[in-house]
Amino acid sequence: MTVTSVDKDLDNLSLTLVADFDAPIERVWQLWADPRQLERWWGPPGYPATVQQHDLTAGGEVTYFMTGPEGDKHHGWWRVTSVNPPKSLDFVDGFAHQDGTPNADMPTTTTQLALAEHEGGTRMELRSVFDSREQMDRMLTMGMEEGIKLAVGQMDALLAA
Amino acid sequence: MLLYNRMVVHELTEDAVDGLFHALADATRRDILRRSARDELSVSRLADAYPMSFAAVQKHVAVLERAGLVTKQRRGREQLVRADPDAVERARQALDQLEAAWRGRVDRMSRLLAPVPDPRNDNPRGHGT
Q1: Which residue, among A142, A114, A140, has the nearest Cα to A128 in the 3D structure?
Q2: What is the pLDDT of residues A32-74, one digit of tens each?
Q3: How many structural domains comprise chain A?
Q4: Residue from B18, B40, B28, B49 nearest B84 by CA
Q5: What pLDDT score was predicted for residue B121?
Q6: B113–A23: do the CB atoms touch at under 8 Å?
Q7: In which domain, by residue range, is A151 found?
Q8: CA distance A22 to A28
Q9: Distances (CA, A) of B39 to A26, B33, B35, B81
Q10: In the CATH hierarchy, which fold is given to the domain comprising B14-83?
Q11: Is residue A145's pLDDT more than 70?
Q12: Looking at residues B29-54, what average pLDDT do you find?
């Protein structure tokens, strides 16, 4: 397994994940530093990302959108707070409206990435924290309502068929 | 707006989606969900509301619980059912979703890092040093 450990801190709303890759550190760094590679792993299956802006410098921004199966577009952004290639990258990431402006209703997370050489490969440590409990709660409420709507909608469709 | 939810839906296992559908496919369970969204109710109070045994109601609650739609908390001798999870439970759910998203990303990263298997053994480049 690639993922070596996962720790969740319910008080601080943080997730720490450690993964080991059988690849040199420079190669793993390229997954983040090369926008064409980032596009291939950032979005979930069926939602490939298109990276528009990609400035991995302190204060720089990454902007992207993901395209869903029905052509629906979902925009997001990173704001880079610090970077030290190929070892570390800190950024805040969030969601954006269709015009690319940040969506304050959706949660932002702060992520700290650290890469280190480890047993001939690379160890990646990620720490991701929800920045606001209120935003996190809103996301869950919407997720629950959306899940129920989705399920009920599909049931209706089945019944109407 | 629903990006995160969609992402999460896509990272959900088929089992989890099946569980959600199964949970909502029953009128009693939908009614329990409605009631527990309004109020925090004990399983025994809920059992009084339906023409069925305590055990049967408990079973319905367990299905809703497995689907992540309600949580059960013990208070004294009573088990309280609520559709609106408390802060700790919400934190757990949100971090579970974040974990699922990152696990998916790490999987895709390792696939990208995997050496591309040579489809043809007679590929001359495959025999180089």
Answers
A1: A114
A2: 999 999 999 999 888 899 999 999 999 999 999 999 888 989 8
A3: 2
A4: B40
A5: 53
A6: yes
A7: 133-161
A8: 9
A9: 55, 10, 6, 9
A10: Arc Repressor Mutant, subunit A (1.10.10)
A11: no
A12: 89
